[in-house]
């Protein structure tokens, strides 16, 4: 092989790369927290909520799950301004990820809720808890525990999918990699480095989610 | 004055009329056993008293308060009447203590410290003070059922409904749960229990209700009902000629 590897550019490009990493991490943290929160709310509606809200949520979920993430992103960033809703690249990227994860996690969490034994709802009711109190204090945690591996995988998928936000010039890790290789013409090395960073981030994220699951579900809680 | 007044209660599931006009009055401190074949409507009756099912006709009055199926009345009713289930239905993610504390804090807004004190007292009452920090799956069936009793007692109900609370237990664990119930009875708690423990019904209960096909087929003191069953259905159920 005659190709000469060159990683000398790394030093100069480090600030750009670090900023990209920071944005990607920020996107995934915000996306995961608010996306899962939205997913829980939607799952509650679909499994136990008021009848009139169900079709609204069902439409949202099916719309998101049957269209490409890139198109959702473009719609938010390029489409919504026509309605007078304008936002920065980063806000659009955040919103797209929240909306996307919200729909997928809704279906995952709903499966966890629906696997709840009927006796749990009845025990809650017989202790004078309202249906929502029973959902919140009794049903939710075991439901999340049931589907935690699937939910964790979905969060990682969304994290990796976040690469496409570079398409609206949100300055994430992929944007940084594209920018760097357009300067150094070292596509191979640049994308090797960014691939390894994504890999490390994904592994780290999985570990964090596993740790969080352990804290939430296996810790002995008396409350 | 009766504590629980059940008058001409009818309950249908679709075309299937499960309760066909039930009337029973239960006085404070009474211990009533409900016996009868599977499918005779025993569970449905208890569930109606607790508001887990709505009734189609008739009325259920608990401590002078009419049962109406809206959230305010349901809450008031369920604060008065606790229920224990065959399958325990403990909350699996909470410790024994957490199970007993939860509804106090959520429903009655009891401060955590006070709820914990009540929980320790109630667990002590069922002989499980030392299991405060145990998770349900670390407990035997009998212990889980006793936690469920403590959990219901923590809401300070004036009556407890027990639906075959020993039926899911291994035989050697039945006695410890019945002992707790017996003690509650001795302390004057009003109890309505669906049970297959005929010996227990005879020894502890003040009245026995025999249900058959959605009706109260016989009712009376245990010595009468068990010693002199008047109907062939009850005789057959009890296995006497
Ligand atoms: N939620 C329900 N929907 C339809 N039918 C029911 C429901 N609950 C109970 N039933 C029916 O009501 C009848 C009485 O049931 P149940 O009260 O559980 O009897 P028991 O406790 O005496 O065995 C049975 O025929 C049962 O199939
Ligand atoms: Mg039954």
From TrEMBL, chain A:
<keyword id="KW-1003">Cell membrane</keyword>
<dbReference type="InterPro" id="IPR043429">
    <property type="entry name" value="ArtM/GltK/GlnP/TcyL/YhdX-like"/>
</dbReference>
<keyword id="KW-0472">Membrane</keyword>
<keyword id="KW-0813">Transport</keyword>
<feature type="transmembrane region" description="Helical">
    <location>
        <begin position="67"/>
        <end position="85"/>
    </location>
</feature>
<keyword id="KW-0812">Transmembrane</keyword>
<feature type="transmembrane region" description="Helical">
    <location>
        <begin position="151"/>
        <end position="170"/>
    </location>
</feature>
<dbReference type="Pfam" id="PF00528">
    <property type="entry name" value="BPD_transp_1"/>
</dbReference>
<dbReference type="InterPro" id="IPR010065">
    <property type="entry name" value="AA_ABC_transptr_permease_3TM"/>
</dbReference>
<dbReference type="GO" id="GO:0006865">
    <property type="term" value="P:amino acid transport"/>
</dbReference>
<dbReference type="InterPro" id="IPR000515">
    <property type="entry name" value="MetI-like"/>
</dbReference>
<comment type="similarity">
    <text>Belongs to the binding-protein-dependent transport system permease family. HisMQ subfamily.</text>
</comment>
<feature type="transmembrane region" description="Helical">
    <location>
        <begin position="190"/>
        <end position="217"/>
    </location>
</feature>
<dbReference type="InterPro" id="IPR035906">
    <property type="entry name" value="MetI-like_sf"/>
</dbReference>
<feature type="transmembrane region" description="Helical">
    <location>
        <begin position="27"/>
        <end position="47"/>
    </location>
</feature>
<dbReference type="GO" id="GO:0043190">
    <property type="term" value="C:ATP-binding cassette (ABC) transporter complex"/>
</dbReference>
<dbReference type="GO" id="GO:0022857">
    <property type="term" value="F:transmembrane transporter activity"/>
</dbReference>
<feature type="domain" description="ABC transmembrane type-1">
    <location>
        <begin position="21"/>
        <end position="209"/>
    </location>
</feature>
<keyword id="KW-1133">Transmembrane helix</keyword>
<protein>
    <submittedName>
        <fullName>Polar amino acid ABC transporter permease</fullName>
    </submittedName>
</protein>
From TrEMBL, chain B:
<dbReference type="GO" id="GO:0015424">
    <property type="term" value="F:ABC-type amino acid transporter activity"/>
</dbReference>
<feature type="domain" description="ABC transporter">
    <location>
        <begin position="4"/>
        <end position="238"/>
    </location>
</feature>
<dbReference type="Pfam" id="PF00005">
    <property type="entry name" value="ABC_tran"/>
</dbReference>
<dbReference type="InterPro" id="IPR030679">
    <property type="entry name" value="ABC_ATPase_HisP-typ"/>
</dbReference>
<dbReference type="InterPro" id="IPR003593">
    <property type="entry name" value="AAA+_ATPase"/>
</dbReference>
<keyword id="KW-0472">Membrane</keyword>
<dbReference type="InterPro" id="IPR003439">
    <property type="entry name" value="ABC_transporter-like_ATP-bd"/>
</dbReference>
<dbReference type="InterPro" id="IPR017871">
    <property type="entry name" value="ABC_transporter-like_CS"/>
</dbReference>
<dbReference type="GO" id="GO:0005524">
    <property type="term" value="F:ATP binding"/>
</dbReference>
<keyword id="KW-0067">ATP-binding</keyword>
<comment type="similarity">
    <text>Belongs to the ABC transporter superfamily.</text>
</comment>
<keyword id="KW-0813">Transport</keyword>
<dbReference type="GO" id="GO:0016887">
    <property type="term" value="F:ATP hydrolysis activity"/>
</dbReference>
<protein>
    <submittedName>
        <fullName>Amino acid ABC transporter ATP-binding protein</fullName>
    </submittedName>
</protein>
<dbReference type="GO" id="GO:0005886">
    <property type="term" value="C:plasma membrane"/>
</dbReference>
<keyword id="KW-1003">Cell membrane</keyword>
<dbReference type="InterPro" id="IPR050086">
    <property type="entry name" value="MetN_ABC_transporter-like"/>
</dbReference>
<keyword id="KW-0029">Amino-acid transport</keyword>
<keyword id="KW-0547">Nucleotide-binding</keyword>
<dbReference type="InterPro" id="IPR027417">
    <property type="entry name" value="P-loop_NTPase"/>
</dbReference>
């Amino acid at each position: 092989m005659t190709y000469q590897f060159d990683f000398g550019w790394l030093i100069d490009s480090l600030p750009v790369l670090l900023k990209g990493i920071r944005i990607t991490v920020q996107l995934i943290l915000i996306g995961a927290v608010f996306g899962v929160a939205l997913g829980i709310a939607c799952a509650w509606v679909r499994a136990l909520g008021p009848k009139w809200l169900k079709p609204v949520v069902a439409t949202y979920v099916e719309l998101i799950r049957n269209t490409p993430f890139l198109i959702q992103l473009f719609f938010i960033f390029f489409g919504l301004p026509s309605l007078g809703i304008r936002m920065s690249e980063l806000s659009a990227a955040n919103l797209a990820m929240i909306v996307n994860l919200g729909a997928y996690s809704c279906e995952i969490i709903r499966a966890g809720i629906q696997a709840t034994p009927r006796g749990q709802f009845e025990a809650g009711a017989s202790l004078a808890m309202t249906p929502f109190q029973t959902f919140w204090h009794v049903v939710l945690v075991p439901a999340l525990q049931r589907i935690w591996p699937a939910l964790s995988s979905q969060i990682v998928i969304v994290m990796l999918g976040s690469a496409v936000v570079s398409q609206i010039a949100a300055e994430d890790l992929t944007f940084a990699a594209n920018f760097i290789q357009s300067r150094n013409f070292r596509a191979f090395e640049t994308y090797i480095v960014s691939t390894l960073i994504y890999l490390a981030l994904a592994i780290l994220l999985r570990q964090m989610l596993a740790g969080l699951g352990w804290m939430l579900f296996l810790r002995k809680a008396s409350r | 004055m009766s504590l629980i007044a059940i008058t001409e209660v009818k309950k249908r599931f679709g075309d299937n009329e499960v309760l066909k006009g039930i009337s029973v009055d239960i006085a404070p401190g009474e211990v009533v056993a409900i016996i009868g074949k599977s499918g005779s409507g025993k569970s449905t009756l208890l569930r109606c008293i607790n508001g887990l099912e709505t009734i189609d006709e008739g009325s259920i009055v608990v401590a002078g308060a009419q049962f109406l199926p809206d959230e305010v009345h349901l809450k008031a009713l369920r604060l008065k009447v606790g229920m224990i289930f065959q399958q325990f239905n403990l909350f699996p993610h909470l410790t024994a203590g957490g199970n007993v504390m939860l509804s106090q804090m959520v429903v009655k807004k009891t401060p955590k410290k006070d709820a914990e004190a009540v929980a320790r007292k109630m667990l002590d009452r069922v002989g499980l003070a030392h299991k405060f920090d145990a998770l349900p799956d670390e407990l035997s069936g009998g212990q889980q059922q006793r936690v469920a009793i403590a959990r219901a007692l923590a809401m300070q109900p004036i009556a407890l409904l027990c639906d075959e609370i020993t039926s899911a237990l291994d035989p050697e664990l039945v006695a410890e749960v019945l002992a707790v119930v017996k003690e509650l009875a001795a302390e004057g708690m009003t109890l309505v229990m669906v049970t297959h423990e005929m010996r227990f019904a005879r020894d502890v209960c003040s009245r026995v209700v025999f249900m058959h096909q959605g009706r109260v087929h016989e009712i009376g003191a245990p010595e009468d009902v068990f010693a002199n069953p008047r109907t062939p259905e009850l005789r057959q159920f009890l296995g006497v000629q």
